[in-house]
Specification:
4 strands; 36% helix; two-stranded antiparallel sheet; single chain; 157 residues; Rossmann fold; binds flavin-adenine dinucleotide
Length: 157
């Protein structure tokens, strides 16, 4: 099936990847790419923060965690497993970091809403699978939500 993904942040790109792996012909269309997206500002820690509903967030986060754990075994993937307390103690562990020069500041809004919207809407121009509103946890939920997006898209054929 042909699928057009709108958005090239972590949610759009992960959905596109998952859909492509399921055999769909995928286009990605986005107003902004790469460094211009909120996703590029994310700390990219796995941590379910400010995203709802809780039951789905737990499920999506667990799926993403499994995928990230798998990626962590490949050094080229850039995924590292570290305990949270190690990160918070990084200046004690590497004191030189306390003197590090700040090269720049980036800001981004956490795209929050009461709950993540992940559902199909049937419009006059065809079905639209919505997947947005991941708040402070878009990275954490990405692979889990992409699974559900792929399942909804597969159900359309
Ligand atoms: C400071 C900060 C730190 C964070 N840290 C973490 C973290 O550690 N862990 C974590 O899991 N999450 C974190 N987050 C949250 C995470 O960054 C977001 O939940 C996530 O980036 C949302 O991804 P997205 O793909 O939905 O949105 P975006 O990255 O904003 O991408 C949206 C895409 O849609 C496109 N688009 C939008 N409107 C249109 C339009 N009308 N037409 C065409 N294209 C359009 C944009 O151009 C862009 O390509 C953090 C957020 C911030 C701000």
């Amino acid at each position: 099936m042909k699928a057009r993904v709108i958005g090239a942040g972590v949610v759009g790109l992960t959905s596109a990847l998952r859909l492509a792996r399921a055999g769909h012909a995928v286009d990605v269309v986005a107003a902004e790419m790469g460094n211009a997206t909120t996703s590029s500002v994310a700390a990219a820690l796995w941590y379910p923060y400010r995203a709802y509903p809780e039951a789905d967030v737990t499920r999506w986060s667990a799926t993403t965690y499994q995928v990230l754990r798998g990626l962590a075994s490949d050094p080229s993937a850039g995924v590292r497993i570290r305990l949270g307390r190690e990160l918070f103690r990084c200046i004690q562990l590497v004191p030189a970091l306390g003197q590090a020069r700040i090269l720049g500041h980036r800001v981004g809004l956490r795209p929050g809403r009461p709950t993540v919207r992940l559902e199909t809407e049937f419009t006059d121009r065809g079905p639209v699978v919505h997947c947005y509103g991941h708040g402070g946890a878009g990275v954490t939920l990405s692979y889990g939500c992409a699974e559900d997006v792929a399942e909804l898209v597969s159900g359309l054929s």
